[in-house]
Amino acid sequence: YVGNSIVAWIWGGPSVNSATLTRFTTLHFLLPFILTATVVTHLIFLHERGSFNPLGLISNADKIPFHPYFSAKDAMGMALATILLMTLSFYFPNLLGDPENFTPADPMKTPDHIKPEWYFLFAYT
């Protein structure tokens, strides 16, 4: 089982230091690009092989080529989603943010989002 090794490698063991934060930031930076490449690869092969035969198996009777309408529809949906997200982020940048980000820092007080809840106390023992 490699799960514990992967978690220890990502988080750097029991302590959080510069190397851990660098690894974590790198993974979070690369993830959107990996997902985008996967989606583009999927769309290229799906549109190339046909909507009813994505694996490219020989079945000429049921094979219907992917209609350009679906490609245009995909492009319009992606453009609309991009426009909506850009509008949200440009005109209302703090709308989805946490209001606690704007409270002044007090090093002598634990922030509310870090304080443990009573129902998690069994896990801390």
From TrEMBL:
Membrane spanning residue stretches: 27-46, 75-92
The free-text note explaining how the cofactor binds reads: Binds 2 heme groups non-covalently.
List GO molecular-function terms, semicolon-separated: metal ion binding; oxidoreductase activity; quinol-cytochrome-c reductase activity
From the record, what ranges are coiled-coil?
A: none
Where the record annotates domain Cytochrome b/b6 N-terminal region profile, the positions are 1-55
Its primary localisation, in coarse terms, equals: mitochondrion
* Subcellular location field: Mitochondrion inner membrane
Cofactor requirement:
heme b
Matches recorded under Pfam families: Cytochrom_B_C, Cytochrom_B_N_2
Q: Which Gene3D superfamilies match?
A: Cytochrome Bc1 Complex, Chain C
Q: Which UniProt keywords apply?
A: Electron transport, Heme, Iron, Membrane, Metal-binding, Mitochondrion, Mitochondrion inner membrane, Respiratory chain, Transmembrane, Transmembrane helix, Transport, Ubiquinone
Q: Which GO terms describe its cellular component?
A: mitochondrial inner membrane
Q: Which residues form the Cytochrome b/b6 C-terminal region profile domain?
A: 56-125
**Which InterPro entries is this protein grouped with?**
Cyt_b/b6_C, Cyt_b/b6_C_sf, Cyt_b/b6_N, Cytb/b6-like_sf, Di-haem_cyt_TM
Question: How is this protein situated with respect to the membrane?
Answer: Multi-pass membrane protein
Record-level GO BP terms = mitochondrial electron transport, ubiquinol to cytochrome c
Summarize the protein's role. Component of the ubiquinol-cytochrome c reductase complex (complex III or cytochrome b-c1 complex) that is part of the mitochondrial respiratory chain. The b-c1 complex mediates electron transfer from ubiquinol to cytochrome c. Contributes to the generation of a proton gradient across the mitochondrial membrane that is then used for ATP synthesis.
Family statement: Belongs to the cytochrome b family.
Listed name of the protein: Cytochrome b
Q: What is the lineage of its organism?
A: Eukaryota, Metazoa, Chordata, Craniata, Vertebrata
